[in-house]
Amino acid sequence: MPYAKAASDAKGGLYAKAGRSGSRNVSLFWRIFSLNAAGLIVATALLLGPVTVSTPVLAGEALVLLGGLAVLLAGNALVLRFGLGPLQRLDRAMATVDLLRPGSRPVVAGPAETAGLITTYNAMLDRLEAERAAGAARALSAQESERHRIARELHDEVGQTLTAVLLQLKRVADRAPQDLREEVGQAQEATRAGLDEIRRIARRLRPGVLEELGLASALRSLAAEFTTHGLTVRHHVTGDLPALTPESELVVYRVAQEGLTNTARHAGADRAELRLRPVPGGAELLVRDNGTGLGDAPEGAGITGMRERALLIGASLTLEPAPDRGTDVRLRVPVPEGAR
Fold this sequence. Notes:
By secondary structure, the protein is of the alpha+beta class. 66% of the residues lie in helices and 11% in strands. Strands 1-2-3-5-4 form a five-stranded mixed beta sheet. Helix 8 links the parallel strand 1 and strand 2. It is elongated and about 130 Å long.
């Protein structure tokens, strides 16, 4: 019996909690409308019942009272609907906001309280986007510094060690018996391949060609690097590009690198295209492939990183289906008026 009583109490408490939760889920519109409607209905009932002008109630009086009730209810519903409409738009904006796609703001409208709430929300979004951009800038700056450090250590430490190993293997090969020279030669080839891979990784971590020869040469070198293993990358970089800041050039290079990396790894494409051209107000980078397309897969860390880099320089990044098939990655970089 004690167990049955406890179960009954728990069940009753569950129903009570569900009832309270249901009452909290009633929208503000229906709460205000129901309260006003109840008051109007009670007033109309009193006028039709004990508090009336004539007894019995005349048909004309009843018609007027019922018509007045309908008009008041309709007017009350319209006022509440238009008054609470901005709150509904604010609710949709809050549900769909994405700090990686800045700029979208709900329109400030409605009564003073609602307009003040929307204004405060927009100001909060401005602060969040500014703080996220500043945090992303610090994180990406630290990331680039770490890339440079690792690339330097790979080149100076590991690269030199493997070079020394190659020299030692060459001396061993010169002195080794004939039956061992083939094995030593295989060790030399493996070491040479490892050294080439270390150098390739170091170049990708720290694009020295970008610092030494400029963005156009760096993009051409990047296209040539990815033209392997069944992927053909065509490049077209015009010579009349506007003057970009070093930060913008680095973002363009990293976005192109990530776009081609995604193409090579995930797109299942055999052709890709890399373009950089001037557009009104700045420059536009296009990475296009003929792969399987975006599909319904969520955006991964690579695309998120591209969006964060674009935010650092005020650029816009869009991913959309290519004209035939595949994916277009477009990065539009703004350039100040004086630098064009």
